[in-house]
Amino acid sequence: MIELKNLSRQFGEMWAVRDLNLTINKGEFCVLVGTSGCGKSTTLRMINRLIEHSAGEIHIDGQPVRGFREDLLRRRIGYVIQHVGLFPHWTVARNIGLVPRLLGWEPERIAARVDELMALLGMSAERFSGKYPRQLSGGQAQRVGVARALAADPEILLMDEPFGALDPLTRDGLQEELLSLHHRLNKTIVFVTHDMDEALRLADRLVVMHEGQIRQQGRPIELLREPVDEFVESLLGGNSRGLKEAALTPVAQRLCHAEMTSGVPDIDANKTLRDALSLMLWHRVDCLNVVEGSESLGTLRLADVVTARAPMGTTRGLSS
Ligand SMILES: Nc1ncnc2c1ncn2[C@@H]1O[C@H](COP(=O)(O)OP(=O)(O)OP(=O)(O)O)[C@@H](O)[C@H]1O
Ligand SMILES: [Mg+2]
Fold first, then answer.
1. Which residues pair with 156 in a beta bridge?
2. Which of its termini does the chain have fewer beta carbons within 10 Å around, N or C?
């Protein structure tokens, strides 16, 4: 879907991005991480041509973006940034309808689309469509930003630290919503963040950048288990990598005892090993009852969490 070939961008003498190669598949959730100034935003903005590249190529669906007309770029690529960039003197509805209006849609079609998007993002149109950005909380404004980016139903969504300024609970909720949107709408997403837990939670493909280049890319669990060097290892959390890996591993993957244990807390089979550890610590127990709905699947012991053993034959209903 998106192909970056030997992509470079210079600012004066300085290379912000140098000889970067990256292929992002259709429907993939790709997350770029790396220290400040390593070229993440520049890479993102070259994709929608807010910044032109100095050398190399960018193809979308096999077509060079250099050849795209501006209205086509706007329609195909949505863009969300940290401070949203909503127009302060426009209502929520007008802000969301920006791109459709630029594309010349009929007013009735725009109004219907705005309502649809607000519903999609869990915002009551009745309550919010007439409000101005200053009357919104950070999380609400961010939702409007996402709705606006989705307005013309783009295939690609570029998101530059969209949840960076939010409190952890709101951020958590929006991550959840974005994941569910991603599953439902199957957009190709390129997302930049400084928050490694956010990156690990969202990414199908995690890309670690350093000094304008890619150090390593792959599935989050691959990078956690086999970082190519100390830089990647420390960026991914150094000594806390084990906990981060536990946060990506479902309980069901370590379930090896089919018998139930009475008098211990239940944990849902789709929760993570990190959730299980936390529950054990909180209740001062060393095993948990693993359940799926009202059905008990067996017992998870502390030893199963810390040592990887072959799980039981059961894989019922588990999203591995
Ligand atoms: N318009 C510009 N003019 C000159 N230098 C720039 C410009 N935009 C970016 N740079 C430089 O290019 C490098 C990469 O910047 P970029 O914004 O892509 O980094 P980043 O990875 O997004 O960083 P951060 O995590 O802090 O947002 C930086 O050294 C930055 O100073
Ligand atoms: Mg940036």
1. 77, 188
2. C
How far is CA 95 from each of CA 122, 146, 205, 291, rounded to the nearest angstrom? 17, 11, 31, 45
Residues 14-39 as b/e (b if ≥16 CB within 10 A, e otherwise) read ebbbbebebebeeebbbbbbbeeebb
* Ligand with smallest separation from the Cα of 194: 1
Task: Give residue-wise pLDDT tens across range 258-276.
Answer: 888 888 999 999 999 999 9
Q: What domains lie within the chain, and their CATH numbers? A: 2-242 (3.40.50.300), 249-307 (3.10.580.10)
Neighbours of 136 (CB within 10 A): 18
* Ligand 2 center to 291 CA (angstroms): 42
- Residue 310, pLDDT > 60, answer no
Q: By three-state DSSP, how is residue 23 classified?
A: strand
